[in-house]
Write a structure and sequence with these properties.
By secondary structure, this protein is an alpha+beta fold. It has a domain of about 45 residues. Helices cover about 30% and strands about 20% of the residues. It is built from three helices and six strands; from the N terminus they run H-H-E-E-H-E-E-E-E. The strands form three sheets. It has a two-stranded antiparallel sheet with strand order 1-2. It has a two-stranded antiparallel sheet with strand order 3-6. A two-stranded antiparallel ribbon has the order 4-5. The chain starts with a helix and ends in a 14-residue tail after the last strand. The mean pLDDT is about 75. Keywords: Signal. It comes from Legionella waltersii. InterPro entries: Lipoprot_put. This is Lipoprotein.
Amino acid sequence: MVTYNTIRMILVSSSLLLLSSCAKSVASGTIPEEGLTVSQIYNQSVATSAPSWTAPRYKRTANGQMAVNYQGETRTAANETKALFKALDNPAIPIYIYPHVALIGDEQLVKPGFTTEFFLYKQNQFALASERY
C-alpha cells in the first residue's frame, strides 16, 4: 500500500514538473510590440515593386488611324475546333509496377519499380458542339 502511494506521488509530481517546464510567461510573448504594421509592410512592397510591363505602342497608318493587330481575336479553324469540341474526361488510372526480374532470352534483368498510368478508355472522345457537359 505504501509503494502504491509512493509511485502515485512520484508520477503526479513528475507530470506537474513536466507541464510547468513547458509553460511560458505571457508577458514575454513572441509577437513583438514595436515595428511595422501589416498594412505598412504591404504598402512598402507595393510601392517598391515596379510593373514589369509597359503599355503597348500602336503604330499609326498614313491617315493617322491606329493599326491594331487582331490576330489573337480573329476566328480560325484551329481555335474554333478547340472552342466547340471539348475533350471528354478520360480518367488516367495510376499503377505502380513493383521491382522485378525480367527474363529476356537467357538473361535476367532487374527492373526497378516505377509508376505509370493507363487510361480508362482506349481513345479520347470529344463532345459535339451542342452537347453540354
